[in-house]
Amino acid sequence: MIDRIGNCRIVEEVASGGMAVVYRAIHDTLGRTVAIKALKTAAALEEHIATRFEREAKSLATLQHENIISVYDFHREHGALFIVMEYVSGIDLYDLLERSGRLPFDLAAIVALQVARALDYIHYRGIVHRDIKPANIMLARQGGVKLMDFGIARDKSFEDLTEAGTGIGTPAYMSPEQILGDKLDARSDLFSLGIVLYQMLTGGKPFIEDEQRSVMHKIRLERHPRVRKLNPDIPRELERIVDKCLEKQPRDRWQSAQQVVMALERFLAKYVEVNYHARLVMFLKAQGLITQLEADEYVSPLVGVPGQGAAGQPNLAARVTSRRGAMVQGVILGVLLLMLGLIHVAPLGEAAPAAPPPVLHGYVHVNAYPWGEVAIDQVAVGATPLARAVELTVGPHTVTVTHPWFQPITKTLDVAAGTADQPLEVRVDFERDGTLAPGKTIPKEAP
Question: N or C: which end of the chain has fewer CB within 10 A?
Answer without folding.
Answer: N
